[in-house]
Each structure stands twice: as structure tokens, then as C-alpha cells.
Write a structure and sequence with these properties.
Elements lengths: L4 E3 L3 E5 L6 H9 L8 E4 L2 E2 L4 H5 L2 E4 L11 H11 L7 H12 L14 H13 L5 E5 L7 H16 L3 E6 L2 H7 L2 E6 L2 E6 L1 H8 L3 E7 L4 H18 L4 E2 L7 E6 L7 H8 L5 E7 L2 H19 L19 H4 L12 E4 L1
Helix pairs in contact: 3-4, 4-5, 8-11
């Protein structure tokens, strides 16, 4: 890695495909791997110089649950709590409170070999937050969970944020990063590509706003007859408008550029006169952003390799596999010279 990055509380996310380098970054930040370059700071302290002291301040929930099959969930919490310095006479009550926090109070007497995958993840989270941890690292915490269990897990993470914990989680789930993270770092091939809030990424690397026009109940035939008229109306007011491929007989979906937002009020004033339609406007999704950033990295690497040239002021030569419309939104990627990760 040759990036410089600052992570701020309460929740930050490392987002990337499998093999992007998320777990390697977590391992460096927790001392499981030694970084080859740069420095890591916790609350202004150099991690390399204050390794033993700093490690006591954080907890780690790794991708695969590291549990003792012959111990119960309660015995796991009691063991880690004692290692983390919880007074012995407080441990029984502390175990109960911690199990309630993560939602496994009914599983305390069961051996971990009998727990479901979701409850094992919750137990691993409980072990990560046991004691006076200030920073919590969650490496793919919801992998393998069903949708309901995943959302319950999200609620637990939010409650930790409300308690003032600093949380860094890795994920390749776009909705998870969008739902939880206050700041998102997109990684690919061991490099940090971009860092910012979800809205910032959507505005800077997205393709615009999504305008969705749908038929009101019992007006489908009228809506179908007006489709071409509605599309032409939007295009006549908003420049560089694209028709989304998800458009169907019951829906029109169009992409409106950010730069045309000053004309939206004029557009809506006209559209609201149409009695057969319902109007919705939404910011593009994080998935759009992820695709766009990945495409930009592909372009950047190809240009560096001499496969073709990149000129943001002229037409850009490109392989046939690259979508011409997506290429319009190419922005040069910022290059950093060293690792420097700060959490405070």
C-alpha cells in the first residue's frame, strides 16, 4: 500500500471486492502484520513505539469465528473479560449485560459448537467489545448472515457508536457500508482509491440523480401513451439526460446530471401537471459509485501501462469493454506517497 488515510469516528468502512486488501489493512492496524512503510497512530501515539499499551485499547472481530467448541458462550465472555481487566466480582453481571447488548442472552449456557452462524458472529462481537475497548475492528462481520440477522447486527453496531466507540469495519456489501458508515474508504488491489462520506462519493463519482416516473393506479394505458412525450419533455429541459436501461412499460427511469439541478424546479412544475404519473427523485446509489470508481481505476492503470492515452479534455481512446457513457465521468485519482492511518 502507498496511501495516506485518516479515519475518524464514529464508524468508518473499508469497502472493496474480495482480495482488495481490506483484511491486510486491518491486520496491520491491529499488529498482526507489520507494515512495510508509513506509520499508524492511535490518539496521537505511534503504534510501533507503544505496541503493548495501545493494543489494550481495541478489540478485533476477525472474519472467521475463533471460538472454543467445548466452552459455553458465557465462559467465553468471562474468560475474555478477565483478560481485559474486568474485576472478578463484576464478571457475572457484566456477562449478562454484554450478552443482552449483542442479543445472545438466551444462548449463554450453550456450547459454541451448537450455536448458529449468526449467534457465533454476535458472540465474536461481544468478545471484541469486552472490557474498556475504545476502538473496535470488525472484519466482514456479517458474512454468512441472513438478511434479518444482518440488520439486527447493524442495530448492535449503531448502539456501540452511540456509546462513543470508534468502529472500523470491512465489507464488500454496498448496502452495509451505505447504511452504517459515516466515512467510506474504497480499496482495490491494495490501494486506497477514494475516501469520503457516502453522499460525497455519490456526488463526486456518481452519475447524477435518478428521476423515476411511474404510472398511478388505473392509469397504465394513459401512461404508456405518454411515455415518449414525457421522455422528450425531460430531455428538452435537462441537458445530457440519459434513459436508464431499467425503464419498463410501467416506469421511466432517467439519469439527470448534477450540473443541471438548477432546472429541476422548472421540470417538476411541468411534470406535476401530468395527472397519470407519480414522480420520485433520488441520489444515485453507492453501487453506481463503486462501478464508476472501479472503472476509473481500470482506465488509470491502462493509461499508465501505455495501453491507451487518457486526456480529460478530448475524446478518450478505450477498450471495447468500457462503456462510453461511464467514461464521461472520469476524474483523475489522487495519488498518495505513504501510509499514515490515524484514529482518534
Amino acid at each position: 500500500m502507498k496511501n495516506k488515510c485518516t479515519f475518524l469516528p464514529p464508524i468508518s468502512s473499508l469497502l472493496g471486492h474480495n482480495g482488495a486488501g481490506k483484511t491486510t489493512t486491518i491486520n496491520m492496524m491491529t499488529g498482526l502484520l507489520r507494515q512495510e512503510d508509513g506509520k499508524i497512530f492511535y490518539e496521537g501515539e505511534d503504534f510501533a513505539e507503544n505496541f503493548e499499551t495501545i493494543r489494550r485499547k481495541f478489540g478485533l472481530c476477525v472474519q472467521k469465528d475463533i471460538l472454543y467448541e467445548n466452552l459455553t458462550a458465557a465462559e467465553h465472555i468471562e474468560l475474555i473479560s478477565r483478560l481485559r481487566g474486568v474485576p472478578v466480582h463484576e464478571i457475572p453481571q457484566y456477562t449478562t449485560l454484554l450478552s443482552q447488548k449483542v442479543g445472545i442472552e438466551s444462548e449463554l449456557t450453550k456450547k459454541t459448537s451448537t450455536l448458529s452462524g449468526g449467534n457465533k458472529r454476535k458472540l465474536s462481537l461481544a468478545l471484541a467489545i469486552a472490557g474498556q475497548t475504545k476502538v473496535i475492528f470488525l472484519d466482514e462481520p456479517t458474512s454468512g448472515m441472513d438478511p434479518n440477522a444482518r440488520r439486527n447486527f447493524w442495530d448492535i453496531v449503531r448502539s456501540l457508536r452511540d456509546e462513543g466507540k470508534t468502529i472500523l469495519l470491512t465489507t464488500h456489501s454496498l448496502d452495509e457500508a451505505d447504511e452504517l458508515a459515516d466515512r467510506i474508504a474504497v480499496m482495490s488491489k491494495g490501494k486506497l482509491l477514494v475516501l469520503g462520506t457516502s453522499n460525497y462519493l455519490k456526488k463526486k463519482y456518481g452519475v447524477g440523480y435518478n428521476l423515476i416516473l411511474t404510472s398511478k393506479p388505473d392509469t397504465l394505458s394513459q401512461f404508456a401513451a405518454q411515455k415518449d412525450h414525457l421522455i422528450n419533455t425531460v430531455k428538452s429541459i435537462i441537458n445530457n439526460t440519459d434513459l436508464d436501461s431499467k425503464t419498463s412499460p410501467e416506469m421511466i427511469k432517467m439519469i439527470l446530471p448534477y450540473g443541471e439541478s438548477s432546472k429541476f424546479s422548472q421540470l417538476f412544475e411541468i411534470l406535476e401537471k401530468e395527472s397519470s404519473i407519480e414522480i420520485a427523485l433520488e441520489l444515485n446509489t453507492l453501487e453506481d459509485v463503486f462501478v464508476n470508481i472501479g472503472l476509473q481505476e481500470e482506465i488509470h492503470e491502462a493509461a499508465q501501462a501505455g495501453a491507451y492515452t487518457v486526456n480529460t479534455n478530448e475524446n478518450i481512446p478505450m477498450p471495447e469493454s468500457i462503456n462510453q457513457r461511464k467514461l464521461i465521468f472520469y476524474l483523475p485519482l489522487t495519488q498518495y506517497s505513504s501510509i499514515q492511518i490515524r484514529i482518534w
